[in-house]
Amino acid sequence: MKKEDKSAIIKQLESTLNEYAHFYLADIGGLNAAKTTDLRRICYKQDIKLLVVKNTLLQKALENSTVDFSELYGSLTGETSMMLSNVGNAPAIVIRDFAKASKAKIKKPILKAAYVEESFYIGEDQLDTLINVKTKNELIGEIIGLLQSPAKNVISALQSGGSTIHGVLKTLSER
Fold first, then answer.
1. Which of 3, 10, 107, 171 has the most beta carbons within 10 angstroms of its beta carbon?
2. Cβ distance 133 to 116 under 8 Å?
3. Given pLDDT bands bounded at 50, 70 and 90, which one contains residue 50?
4. What is this structure's pTM?
5. What are the residue ranges spanned by the domains of the chain?
């Protein structure tokens, strides 16, 4: 491959990385064409971009980024595919479900590493953690719900107390 071609691919990888908030590095090597097509179809339905990349070119693209991705460099061995998404846990769910559905001895895809919600997750054992990662908006929603709960309890107690007092006064006035 010519140096100009490599630099063009690196620039394209850089721009693709900037388009998405989260990405996963996975090993899908060994999947036949039909299984790979199935995986691509599932990813497309979930708004996940699946790319097969050369490790050296991806590392150069990561080095040129404003974020320090040096923790991921150790995962750039063997066959590497990138799964890019704006939803943090969507690729993790796809990896888990696709590997479960596979009848092969070696379950593919295998998670190598991930960059989700500005944190690094290295190794296949992090898959369950990544599935349970909540987005920033989900966490904000939960916090707002928790903050509203005590106020709602106070208001409902005051309202029920008012109707109780009204009921007692009405009964006393009737007697």
1. 10
2. yes
3. very high
4. 0.74
5. 3-133, 135-175
E strand spans, the chain? 22-27, 49-53, 80-85, 110-116, 119-122
> How many C-beta atoms surround the C-beta of residue 91 within 10 A?
28
Parallel, antiparallel or unpaired: strands 49-53 and 22-27: unpaired
What pLDDT, in 10s, does the model give residues 88-100? Answer: 888 999 999 988 8
3-state secondary structure 1-16: CCHHHHHHHHHHHHHH
Q: Which residues does residue 82 pair with via DSSP β-bridges, in sequence order?
A: 25, 51
CATH topology classification for 3-133: Alpha-Beta Plaits (3.30.70)
Map tokens 């005590």 to a residue: 150
Q: How far apart are CA 18 and CA 13, in angstroms?
A: 9
